[in-house]
Amino acid sequence: MIQWDKQKLESKLAYCIGQIDNGVEQFGDSFFPLDVSVSGRYDCYYNRSWIPGFWSGLLLLAYEVTMDKKYLDVARRHLDSYEIRIKNLSDVCHHDIGFCYSPSCVALYKLTGDERAKKTALAAADAECLRYKENGKYIKAWGAMDDPKENRIIIDCLLNLPLLFWAAKESGQEKYYEIALNHLHKSVDLLIRPDATTYHTYVIDFNEGVPVMPKTAQGYADDSIWARGQAWAVYGLALAYGYTRDESLVEKQIAVTNKFIDLLPPDQVPAWDMVFTDNNTLKDTSASAIAVCGMLEMNRLLQQHKNRAVWEQKICDMMSALSEGHLVGNRPGTSAILAHGTGSVPHGQGINASQIWGDYYYMEALVRLYKPDWVQYW
């Protein structure tokens, strides 16, 4: 049983809710936060890109903690934009559809039984399936499906597969499950190295469907260990095991988690790429929050696994590190929660900044600690 100071836990949840309140005032019913902020205050954006679901998810987490309907009501009013977006197939030329629709529409359906949210999420699962290439049995990460120049799989997609697993369960249609399972196996085979570190992406031959070479997009090098990618594996494999109960995933998930832990620097917050193990290299706090959620999920699923006690202590250490040295704080006008994240160093984006996904996963971790029976959104 994880022993994390209850008073501290309640204090950090209250802080998150205060920042969410600032966001509600800023964004209203129609806007969403832009993905990153270096000032602690997110600019307004539309329901575009891969990140709006995290704001809706934060609202639903706030509702579950407080039972204040104002958060639920805003999340419900978001449904119009999610419905229109998926009906028009607007900005869905990527694998990230699950990030958009799981913590928003799937979560809203799980919490309230809202049939429109369910229908919208199932339509999103259909759109995700349009990314599937039968020749090779994988979900193409980015780009037009007929573009042979940009053809790869990506470790991040492990967090988009739950949308398909959920859709299979809700609809009874096996196609969702088969596509998710095929891509899962391809990802495990290609993206997880024998030493349990991870590649970010892997290029696949467009015509033959065979692996070509590993390639990073946001990491230090093609053969390095992009921190958020390693964290996606920690959480994604835990979620996949929850849906499939495939015992072969257990060993993989435990291995990638233990590797993540082994590569943490002394201050317990990973560098943006885990080839760097010192305290001073640029951090990615979002990777830490994602990994904690994965460890908590696997501890929930496997009550007796041999690493449980070690993970429980490490969860406390990592959450304490984030909570004591890496929050934006209650500065006037701020709406972000977690500081010192990293978007993409190679692209010069979101450097030492807040990210809406980091905010979401940090609060999800707090809610998991606060409500051990919490029903996950993924």
User: Got a strand count?
Assistant: 10
Largest sheet report = 3 strands, antiparallel
Task: Name the poorly predicted regions.
Answer: none
**Spatial ordering of strands, largest sheet:** 2-10-9
Distance between the termini: 23 Å
Strand content: 5-15%
Order of helices and strands: HEEEHHHHHEEEHHEEHHHHEEH
Specify Rg, calculated over alpha carbons: 19 Å
Structural class: mainly alpha
Helix content: 40-55%
- Global mean pLDDT: 96
Number of helices: 13
Oligomer: single chain
Shape from CA axes?
globular
Short description, anyone?
The protein is 52% helix and 9% strand. It has 378 residues and is mostly helical.
Identify the notable features of this structure and list them briefly.
10 strands; three-stranded antiparallel beta sheet; mainly alpha; 13 helices; 378 residues
Can you describe what's shown?
The chain has 378 residues and is mainly alpha-helical. The chain is 52% helix and 9% strand. The protein is built from 13 helices and ten strands. It has helices spanning 6-27, 52-66, 69-77, 79-87, 97-112, 115-129, 161-171, 174-191, 227-244, 248-262, 285-301, 308-325, 356-370, and strands spanning 32-33, 36-37, 44-45, 132-133, 138-139, 152-154, 201-204, 211-215, 341-344, 349-355. Strands 2-10-9 form a three-stranded antiparallel β-sheet. Helix 2 (52-66) runs antiparallel to helix 3. The longest helix has 22 residues, at 6-27. The protein starts with 5 loop residues before the first helix and ends in an 8-residue tail after the last helix.
